[in-house]
Amino acid sequence: MSAHPSLDPSVVRWSVPPSERGDRPVLLLLHGYGSDEHDLFGLAPYLPERFVVASVRAPLAPPWPMPGASWYPIEGLDGRDPDAVTLAARAVLAWVRDAVGEAPVGLLGFSQGGAVALQTLRADPDAVSFAVVLAGYAAGGELPGDAVLAARRPPVFWGRGAADDVIPAALVDATAQWLPVHSELSGRVYPGLTHSISHDELDDVRAFLDARLALASPSSTG
């Protein structure tokens, strides 16, 4: 496949200026299809303050008239190429290397961004500490990092709505099989929730993130 465009560092939203980041853990937000860096950044006030939140813009433009940006092309309900998801994940990894450095990094992605979050974890298990996947899925195929994940079982939160009809059922079923084998899985299916994020889900995400901070530094729960 052709090279994937890189992430544009000029369209990243940060929760704090460079002088306040230091070695604080970074939570990277990956938006969904047709959205941009402003969308998930609205969640920042609901997230633990200890995290430096960074929200990036996906590098591709979806077909007109869809607005916003996309991480990989979608052509019909079954048009989600795992190789394209991997290319997007490698673009995320390149951005992390350039913009974050040695600070711990966790990922939070919605829909397409959730798929990329998991694929980034799979592409380089050493670069990502955990993943929060909201209304997303695990792309098919196999990656070299899968065996590492199965041995390490990094923390993953997977939340989805019971009334979400956007992600094909086959992908949801495959993800439900894949995640328990390759992660320390927590999460919830939210009754009545469509392809969106609810307040109950945000509360669960906050608890998951607080637990990550507590394990990393018991005296700094943010």
From TrEMBL:
Membership in a protein family: Belongs to the AB hydrolase superfamily. AB hydrolase 2 family.
Domain Phospholipase/carboxylesterase/thioesterase: 19-211
Name of this protein: Alpha/beta fold hydrolase
GO MF, one example: hydrolase activity
Spans through the membrane: none
Source taxon at top rank: Bacteria
Keyword field: Hydrolase
